Amino acid sequence: MTQDGKQQIRVTSSHWGAFEVETEGGRILSARPFSEDPAPSAIPAAVPAAVHHDSRIARPSIRKGWLNGRQGRRGEDSFVELPWDEALDIAAQDIDRIRKTYGNEAIFGGSYGWSSAGRFHHAQSQVHRFLNSIGGYVASFGSYSTGCAQSIMPHVFGTDFISLLYQHQQSWQTLHDHTETLVMFGGINSKNAQVSMGGITRHDTASWLERFRAKGIYCLNIGPQRGDAPEGCDWLALRPGSDTALMLALAYVLVQEGLADEAFLARYCTGFDRFRPYLMGESDGCPKDPEWAAVLCGADPQQIRILARRMARTRTLITVAWSLQRGEHGEQPYWMSAVLAAMLGQIGLPGGGVGYGYGAIGGVGKSFRALQGMTLPQLDNPVKTVIPVARMADMLRFPGARYDFNGQQPCYPDIRLIYWAGGNPYHHHQDLNALHEAWQRPETIIVNEPWWTATAKRADIVFPATTPYEREDIGRSSMDDYLFYMPQLIPAVGKARDDYAIFCGLAERLGASERFSEGRMAAAWIADLYAEFHQTAQAQGLDLPDLATLKARNWVRLPLATEGPDTTLFARFRADPEASPLGTPSGRIEIFSDTIEGFGYADCPGHPVWLPPSEWLGTATAQTPLHLVSPQPGDKLHSQLECALADSEDARPVALMIHPEDAAARGIADRDLVRVFNSRGACHARARVTPDILRGVTALPTGAWYGDPGSAADADGNPNVLTKDVGTSKLGQGCSAHTALVEVARLTQAR
Predict the structure, then answer these.
(1) Cβ–Cβ under 8 Å, residues 16 and 200
(2) Is 114 a catalytic residue?
C-alpha cells in the first residue's frame, strides 16, 4: 500500500482467481484480469463497489435488545455502535460466562472457509484456533457441497472423499489422451469451475472440453439443464433425483447383454453377487430394466440401451457432479456410479472409471506435485462433539435429542453461544424461515463480518472485519501452481480490524493471549509460515524466492505440474490389489457393504438402490407441480459481493429458468416478475423462459441475501426459503437442497 495515496496497480489472489487491482487515495478504483489467465472470471469486477459499499459494517455493533437483558428477536432489532474496547469487553465477559456456566460444549464454532484465499487470514482457521485456545467448541463435519459424499464414499472406496477429490482424480490431459466416451451426470459446468479452494489462477475447464470435442470424444450431459455442459455436448434431459434409476438401468443392460466385466468384479470388488438379484429383479420382482427406468427418469429405453453398449465398448469415464448428492438419498447415485464404473471394468485405466466433481471447482482435473505448508495451526480441540454441518438448525431446535449418523447415534449439544467468522449460513442452509426461528434459541451469537449480511443482522455482537484487500497475506493452493504475495491494497475501511486482531483482543481478556498469539503479530506469523513453506519446498528441490523477493515480485509460478500413471485414479490398486488394497474392510471396491447393512438404515441399505425422494416430479401435486433446483450462481462465489450486485435493478431479483410450455401455462413471458412459492416460503424472481431446461423443472441460483423474515416473500430471490431442511439419509445427513417442489405465478397473480 502506498503511503502517499498515489495510484498503484498490484496483483492479488482470491478463490475466483488472481486479478489486478488499481488503487488511489485509499480506494479501490478497478479490478482487471490477470495477464496469465486465459479465461478470467468476471467476478472481480464487483470488488471495488463491494469493498466501499454502504453495507460495510463501520464499527463494533451490539443488538439493542440483547444489551437490555437479551430481549427482542434477532433480525428484527436495531444495533448500538460501541468503541472497540467496550465491545470486546462485553463479548469476552459473555464468552467467559457461558463456558464457565455450561462448558465449552455449549459453544458452536461456525465458519465455512471461503472468506479469503490468504493462508494466514483464513477466517475458519482463525476462529477455530481462538476457540481451541479458550477450551474448545462444537465443530461440524463435512460441507453443504459434499457432506453426503464425504460420508458414503469411504465405505465404497476406503478413501477419504476430500483426498480422493483433490489429490487423486485423473487430469484433463489424461482424459484427453485416453477417454473415448465422457458421461457427465450433472454436467461439467465451467461457471462453477471459475472458483476453487485457495484460488484458481488459470481457468481452463471450458477449453479442455472444447479440446475433447475437437478430438472426437463423445460427451454426454445428463441432467435437467442443457447449460450444465458446453455447446456441442449431447444432452439427455433427466428428471432431478432420478439419476440412480438411470444408472441401474444401464447396469441392467450390461448384465443382460453380457457386457459386464465379470473378471474385474471378481478380482477387485466384493458384493456383486448380493447386488445382482436386486438389479435383475430376482429379489423383489422388479427388474431395473430401461422400461422401468424410463417411467422414473424420462429417458427413452432404447437410448438407455445404446448408451450402455457404447460405454462398454469404448474407454468411458463417468463423472458425477456434486449436485447429485445434494438431495434426499444423495448417497445412492454416488455409490451406484462407482458400481456402474466397476461393472464396466475400467477403474484404474487411464481415461476410464469414475470421477467426482469435475467442473464443480476449478482445481479438479489439474495435476500438481504435492507441496504442503502455510497452514495456521488450529490447536487441539478438547471438545469432541461434532455435528454434520447440514444439521445445524436441528442442533439448535432439538438440544439433547439423539439422531442417527453414519452408524452412530450421538446427541445434539445444547448450544448457548455461536461464534461465526467467515461465511453466511443464511446462504448455505435450507428452509431459511425455519432457520430464523431456530436461530433465536442460543443466548448469544457473535459474528465477525465486513458487511451487514443476513447473518450479521441476526447476531447479537458484530465485529467489523477487514476484507482481503485491507491486509497482507500469502495466496497459495495445493490445486494451483502459482504463489502470490497479497499486499494490503488500501487502509481498513471504517473501524474494521482483521480477524486475528479481533481474536487477539478477546484472547487477552480471557487469559489465553499467549496460547492464541504466541506473542506474534500478524506479520510475524506470515513470515514464519512462509519460512516453513520455503524450507519444505527446498527439501523437495524447489527453488522459491524468499519473502522479501516475493513481496517485490508480487507473484511467481511454481514448477509443480505433473503427468504420469499416478494421475490415474486407483491405478496402483488395479495393478496389484493385494499389494495396494483399498481402505475398505475387504480391501476392495464395496458393491455391497456389510458395515452399512449392519447400520440397519432403511434409507441407505447395504447396496445401492432406487429410493424416490419425498419431493420430486413423481410426487408433484397441483399445489406444487414444478421441481426446483438451486445451482451455484455465475456472478459471484456463494453470496460474496452480493451487496454490489444487488444494486443493479436489472440483476435483481435473480433469474428463474423455466421451460416455455411451463411459462405459457402460467401466462409468464420472458423477464416477467414472478413469485415462486411452496408451504415453506416464497420469493420473487425474474423469469428466464428457455428450452434449455427440462419441462417441469425450474432453476433459481443461490446467492441472494436473505431479507426481512417478516415479509411475505424474499424480494431478491433466495431459493433457500423454498428448500427442504432434511438429511440425505441417516448415513450421510447431508444437505437436501435439490429435493423441493414449488409453484410459480406472475407476480400480479400471486396470492
Answers:
(1) yes
(2) yes
* Residue partners of 201: CB distance under 8 A and separation at least 6: 13, 17, 18, 34, 36, 37, 480, 481, 482
Question: What pLDDT, on a 0 to 100 scale, did the predictor assign at position 751?
Answer: 38
In the set 16, 114, 235, 358, the catalytic residue is 114
Picking from 568, 597, 574, the residue whose alpha carbon sits closest to that of residue 585 is 597
Q: How far apart are CA 666 and CA 626, in angstroms?
A: 12
Give the pLDDT confidence score for residue 213 in this predicted structure.
95
Beta strands in 468-588 (DSSP E): 473-476, 482-486, 555-557
Query: 207 near 39, Cβ under 8 Å?
Result: yes
Give the pLDDT of residue 564.
55
pLDDT at 745: 98
Name 2's Cβ contacts closer than 8 Å, sequence gap at least 6: 8, 23
Angle at 224 between CA 219 and CA 228, to 5 degrees: 50
User: Looking at 16, 66, 112, 705, which residue is catalytic?
Assistant: 112
Taking alpha carbons only, the member of 657, 490, 720 closest to residue 25 is: 490
Predicted confidence at residue 368, as pLDDT, reads: 86
SS3 string, 256-306, reads: HCCCCCHHHHHHHEECHHHHHHHHHCCCCCCCCCHHHHHHHHCCCHHHHHH
The three-point CA angle 508-504-376 to 5° equals: 130
Are the beta carbons of 242 and 329 closer than 8 angstroms?
no
> Do 615 and 240 form a contact (C-beta atoms < 8 A)?
no
**Cα dihedral across residues 689, 694, 698, 699: positive or negative:** negative
Is 112 catalytic? The answer is yes
Query: What is the tens place of the pLDDT at every residue in 548-600?
Result: 999 999 999 999 888 655 578 899 999 999 999 999 999 999 999 999 999 99
pTM of the model: 0.96
Closest CA to 199 of 23, 368, 319, 27: 368
- Reference 200, options 86, 390, 352, 360; nearest CA is 360
Low-confidence ranges of the chain (pLDDT < 70): 1-5, 167, 563-566, 749-751
